[in-house]
Write a structure and sequence with these properties.
CATH class of the domain at 290-536: Mainly Beta
Shape: elongated
Helix content: under 10%
Distance between the termini: 16 Å
CATH superfamily of the domain at 290-536: YVTN repeat-like/Quinoprotein amine dehydrogenase
CATH architecture of the domain at 290-536: 7 Propeller
Radius of gyration: 26 Å
Length: about 550
């Protein structure tokens, strides 16, 4: 597993002191940050953990599905009994130091080491932005369209209207909504604060000791603002193309959690972008690459990741990776180029997609240094294929966004959503399928494709379903040999097939697997969403 990625999606972040941050998330995930990267702790639960807070004592409390609460002290995790089965959505600390939690119809307070029910909520709290207040008898619960007040005996609406976030600040309770914000001046009374034009105020920063928030417009970088008597002041802009869902200060550095990614104002960035290709030339030695999908601009590359015996090293920027022998690696490099690693040195060559231009090499399959097929992707999601031979590059038309494969001998395959194109000697033919996801083969006589819920063998211009009637929802495919197939399903399961049926190999990750490769059937690597990097080695 990539130590700068997460096997399951993190959903909340807290700080336990300078440089000591804690993440919680799906499948009971609890991570601490160490010198070697993110360490996944054994939480003892598979529940989704939705939120986490830390007391000044250093004890953290995470809440989640099924009424789950765990206490975290150092690397020790202790489950706690709550007496409820509701999905707990938010946890907070009152100004008097009481830990409170809510979600579903539950409202809980921690008294000593015991969770006590304060009563039922007035409706099902399916989404909760925050819970805070002066004490367990004076609470505000911020939901997307209303703020509810608990006075110790009953509930009442305190504010009606949409909001993105809420928190207790030195000025009192404050709500955020895009460019506007409101401060509570009394029970049920809220006063509009100065407009922060173009800010899209989104989340409060925990641990800052003041009214510090983060905002991000659609085409801008995240920005940090402080609320003072004169209104909002821009503090800094962070070079990170993510919407910050959570932010916490550890006293020196601010840590932000986006869509499965973590960044800090100290320059840290987690490696959780999607990996979309993987290639290995020896057991324990693997390369992984990926890119950010285009959004009316060219796709964004990320550093090639090389893993040797568990050691991670970043290489040049790359969109895709493949190879053709030990230490002989080919990448799709920025600028419509390929890069070749031979003898420890990188050399680069332009790819000719004529008559088109503006395509980055998002897929590559190399048979040798001079024989390969690539697929190019532009800023509008269009793809083109190009073939390299001893005489140079030849554009072979559209396709390849779902994968490319070449068994050698001048034969090439391009997968796209509606089918598989076979290209040879300037001629092409297509086998039409629905929702194609991948193509790979053992040799020229054994070529397979993932399409819809099944796997097909491509032969003689036709597609023959293999593996029996079982629906597999194939998402990624690697062929170890004729009728020896590894597939990853849309549910995160990995299956192995012999051409007549499938055997389950478990659910190695809750994250989607996008590509697989191996040196043999006993050494298979899989990569995917949010930096997932997995190995099968029985």
């Amino acid at each position: 597993m990539n130590p700068e990625a997460f096997q399951h999606t993190p959903l909340a972040i807290t700080s336990r002191g300078t440089g000591d941050v804690l993440l919680v998330g799906q499948a009971g995930g609890v991570w601490t940050r160490g010198a070697a990267g993110w360490e996944l702790l054994s939480s003892g639960t598979s529940a989704t953990l939705n939120d986490v807070v830390t007391l000044p004592s250093g004890t953290s409390y995470a809440v989640g599905s099924g009424g789950t609460v765990i206490a975290i002290e150092g690397s020790t995790i202790t489950p706690m009994v709550t007496g409820v089965t509701d999905t707990l959505r938010a946890v907070g600390i009152t100004t008097s130091g009481v830990v409170v939690a809510t979600g579903g119809r539950a409202l809980l307070a921690l008294q000593g080491n015991t969770w006590v029910s304060l009563g039922q909520t007035p409706f099902d709290f399916t989404t909760v932005h925050a819970i805070f207040g002066e004490s367990a008898d004076d609470l505000l619960v911020v939901t997307p369209n209303v703020v509810m007040r608990w006075n110790g005996t009953s509930w009442a609406s305190d504010y009606t209207g949409p909001s993105n976030a809420g928190a207790m600040t030195p000025m009192g309770p404050v709500l955020l909504r895009n460019d506007t914000s409101h401060m509570r001046t009394g029970v049920g009374t809220w006063e509009a604060l100065p407009v922060c034009t173009g800010c899209n105020l989104f989340r409060f920063e925990r641990g800052s000791g003041g009214a510090v928030v983060w905002g991000k417009e659609a085409l801008a970088l995240p920005r940090r603002y402080a609320l003072g008597p004169g209104g909002w002041t821009l503090l800094e802009e962070l070079d990170w193309n993510q919407q910050p869902f959570h932010a916490v200060s550890d006293g020196g550095t601010v840590w932000l959690l986006g869509a499965g990614q973590v960044a800090s104002t100290g320059g840290y960035r987690s490696r959780t972008q999607d990996f979309r290709s993987v290639w290995t030339d020896a057991p324990g030695h693997v390369f992984a690459a990926g890119y950010e999908p285009p959004a009316f601009s060219l796709p964004g590359s990320q550093p090639l990741l090389e893993i040797t015996a568990g050691s991670f090293v970043e290489g040049p920027q790359a969109f895709s990776v493949h190879g053709y022998g030990p230490g002989q690696v080919v990448i799709g490099a920025p600028g419509s180029r390929i890069g070749r690693l031979v003898g420890g040195m990188w050399t680069y060559e332009d790819v000719d997609f004529s008559p088109s231009s503006g395509y980055e090499v998002s897929k590559v399959f190399a048979v040798s240094s001079e024989a390969m097929i690539v697929a190019g992707l532009n800023g509008f999601g269009n793809t083109l294929g190009a073939v390299r031979s001893a005489s140079g590059w030849t554009s072979v038309g559209s396709g390849g966004d779902r994968g490319v494969y070449s068994p050698g001998g001048g034969v090439h395959y391009l997968a796209y959503a509606e089918g598989i194109r076979r290209v040879e000697g300037g001629q092409s033919s297509t086998v039409y399928l629905s929702d194609v996801r991948a193509v790979h083969g053992a040799d020229a006589q054994h070529v397979y494709a993932c399409a819809g819920q099944h796997v097909y063998e491509i032969s003689g211009g036709t597609a023959v379903q293999v593996g029996g009637a079982q629906a597999v929802g194939c998402w990624a495919l690697w062929v170890a040999g004729p009728n020896d197939l590894f597939v990853a399903t849309t549910l995160g399961q990995v299956l192995r097939g012999d051409g007549t049926g499938w055997t389950g190999m478990g659910f190695p990750s809750s994250l989607s697997v996008l590509a697989m490769w191996g040196t043999s059937a006993s050494d298979v690597w899989a990569v995917g969403r949010q930096g997932a990097l997995l190995r099968h080695s029985p």
